[in-house]
Amino acid sequence: MNTIHWSQQASYPVLALLQLLPLVGALLTGYLRHRPIAAMLGRVVALLVLLLAIDLYRLLDKSSAALQMAEYLPLLGPFAYHAAADGVTVLFVLLAALLTFLLTLYTAARQLEAPGQLVTVILLLEAVLMSMLVTTHLLWFVLASALELGLAGYLLWRWATTPERSLALLRFYQFQGTGLLLLFLGTLMLAWHFADGAGYWSFDLLDLSQATYQGPLATVSFFLLFYGLAIRSPLFPFHGWLPVVSHRGNVAIAPAFLLGVKVGLYGMVRFVFPILHEAVAQWHLYTVAFAVVGVFYAAFLAFQQQNLRRLIAFAVVSHTSLAVIGLFTLERTALQGALLLAVNFGLAATAMLFMIGFVYSRTNTTELSRLGGLFDRIPYIGITFLVSGLAIIGMPGTPGFDAAHMVLEASIERFGALLTVAAAVGNVAAAGFLLYAFQRAFLSPSSAGVSLDAIEHSRPMELLVAVLVLAVLLGTGFYSEPWMVLTDAPMQALGVHFEHTGMVSR
Question: What's the predicted TM-score (pTM) here?
Answer without folding.
Answer: 0.91
